[in-house]
Amino acid sequence: MARLTLTLLILAFALPASAQSFRSDRIAVTARGEGPDVILIPGLASTPAVWDATAQALDDRYRVHVVAVNGFGDTAPGANARGPLTAAIANEVRRYMAEQGLERPAVIGHSMGGQIALKMAADAPGRIGRVMVVDSSPFFPSLINGRATTADVAPIAEVARTAVLFLGDQVLQQQAGAAGQRLGGAADAVVGAMGWQGGDRRVLAQGIYEVMTTDLRADLARITSPVTVVYGWSESTDSPRHQVDQGFRQGFLRLRNAARFERIEGAQHMVMIDRPREFLAAVNRFLAQPAASTSRTALP
User: Helices (H) and strands (E) in the chain — how many of each?
Assistant: First the structure.
């Protein structure tokens, strides 16, 4: 009996973090690998599958924690079916960190997940080791119009939320071009087809509204963690991906410490899928930096 008890205890401590005590009605987290902690957060309507290649490339050197948002893909929405979404998810990821004993992890977030990562770092200065935001902005409309405000885009965001809620997310996919023009041409930043995996209408509707209206620029000054911004770019001056270059740079000016920018040519919104090799190289550079680094690299 004593031997059986000891064996069970050993197995319990050997289980990955996601299989231990953490319970949430908003997120699920799967942990793999050993080493320094890295948290991966997907974007709007994306499942953990978008991080498969990244997690596989890192889990021989890092303990990778991949977040799944309830209501995205085929998961049940749970508490995400009602009320605010991104702030609640940020709080749940921080609770996961606390319960699992993660100290100053690196956090990588794509699109909406990037906004969640920024909010985590702003709300808990000193608790996040470093942040990488992937094709994400503190305020997405500013990528096109630096003078845009939440009040300016709220009516359009409400139309998008209503369309998804009552007509389904397929409407947004079918009309991505038109919707993108109403957003100022940034269609792929909201409904990039490769990352849009659907889900519960209520969660998707709230998510797209918050992605369009969340403005974290005033919160950036509270972030003490080094921030790296990775985004798709095109050398062609006719491409929208060329035009948003300055938008990404301007969006992070209020950080206490200057951001480090990595633009990846040929990538669109789903940078890690569009250019996996180049993206992984950027991730490796990000993880190799000292936590206290505040340097800004020049754009190529």
Answer: 13, 7
Q: Is the pLDDT of residue 12 over 90?
A: no
Cα 9 versus chain centre, distance: 35
By DSSP bridging, strand 130-134 and strand 106-110 are parallel
Q: Which residue type does 68 have?
A: A
**Which of 201, 142, 134, 139 minimizes the C-alpha distance to 172?**
201
8: exposed, middle or buried (Cβ count in 10 Å: 0-12, 13-18, 19+):
exposed
φ, ψ of residue 291 in degrees (nearest 5): -60, -30
124: helix, strand or coil: coil
**Cα distance between residue 131 and residue 235, in whole Å:** 26
What structural domains and CATH numbers belong to the chain? 9-137+218-288 (3.40.50.1820)
User: How open is the CA angle 245-144-188, to the nearest 5 degrees?
Assistant: 80
Q: How far apart are CA 121 and CA 66, in angstroms?
A: 18
pTM attached to this predicted model: 0.85
Confidence class for position 172, pLDDT limits 50, 70, 90 = low
Determine the longest span between alpha carbons in the chain, in angstroms. 72
What does DSSP say about strands 260-265 and 130-134: parallel, antiparallel, or unpaired? unpaired
Residue 166 has pLDDT above 90, yes or no: no
Q: Which strands form 37-41's sheet, in the order they lie side by side?
A: 27-32, 63-69, 37-41, 106-110, 130-134, 227-233, 260-265
Looking at the chain, how many residues does it have?
300
**Phi/psi of residue 83, nearest 5 degrees:** 75, -175
